[in-house]
């Protein structure tokens, strides 16, 4: 799916416009102008994000440092998007590892406090920022690896699933999954689609309907993560793995992209049809109540 988005962002101007409307992609850039990285190795820091970029390898490491649990608030999401935009604009940056500076937690998902009791305008901006993060990671031209060094529920799991590869700390205390159902909320369809693309239809059905959080071993078994390593090795394994991915010529990447793009389009058409059916059904129910 991520590759599919990459392809359409490269080749389909119409869809780019559609996606940028969906994601409101100008919103992060409008706040702070991106700067190109000039040094051989550099480090740039916002309050909540630290990026180390090694120009000799072309690999950047994004450290999420929003205590206590890297919950995805509007401010944090905006910082993530700005950092991604900067890296994306620097053509020498080919790979991105995303990890957490917080102990025991990769990301606690959407910031519940930023969703509750806020104005409709804030909620709209917040929700657009969530979509923007999703699109930016999924549509990135960089190879992205999630170094999941702690628990990663809900939106944290989504973030990791938008990456090309996931390495998780092998600590049974940690968990990962889309647990929205357990919180009494329905995960949006694009959360669901992202999981289907990662672990398949049946596993997603089980995961979402029951709101399952998986231990690292269980997550590996269903393919939610690709590799488990000792807690101390998560970041180094991620950078080693990146070397392998970057050795693959970009043209092959683009070819696979076309296959996935086809699947993604089919999925999108189905989703639109299903939304139309739901609206028609809702109207019918409404009408039958009137009479
Ligand atoms: C605005 C319009 C929106 C419309 C939305 C419509 C539909 C949306 C549908 C669904 C979308 C859902 C996506 C989500 O991501 S919802 C968030 C789900 N997240 C969770 O369930 C995680 C909950 N947290 C945990 O399980 C644990 O905290 C964790 C395992 C991450 C860490 O455990 P640990 O024991 O280390 O730490 P705690 O003591 O539990 O927490 C420390 C501190 O952090 C606060 N906190 C935790 N999670 C969140 C969070 N998601 N948002 C905000 N704050 C969080 C926690 O309350 C503690 O605070 P304090 O007590 O120390 O003040």
How many strand elements? 9
Overall residue-averaged pLDDT value: 84
Shape: globular
Q: Report the order of strands and helices.
A: HHHEEEHEHEEHEEHHHEHH
The largest sheet, given as strand count, sense and whether it forms a barrel, is: 7 strands, mixed
Taking all Cα atoms into account, the compactness measure Rg is: 19 Å
Distance between the termini: 45 Å
Q: How much beta, percentage-wise?
A: 5-15%
Structural class: alpha/beta
Q: Can you tell me about this structure?
A:
The protein is α/β, with parallel strands linked by helices and 291 residues long. 52% of the residues lie in helices and 14% in strands. The strands form 2 sheets. The protein has a 7-stranded mixed sheet with strand order 1-2-3-4-5-7-9, with helices on both faces. Strands 6-8 form a two-stranded parallel sheet. Helix 1 (2-11) packs across helix 11, helix 2 (13-23) runs antiparallel to helix 5 (120-138) and helix 7 (189-199) crosses helix 8 (201-210). The chain is globular and about 65 Å long. Mean pLDDT is 84; it is low at 8-39. Bound molecules: ligand LCMDX3IU. The site of ligand LCMDX3IU has 25 residues, from helix 5. Ligand LCMDX3IU binds at residues 68-69, 71, 104-105, 108-113, 115, 123, 126-127, 151, 153-155, 179-180, 183, 185, 187-188. Belongs to the enoyl-CoA hydratase/isomerase family.
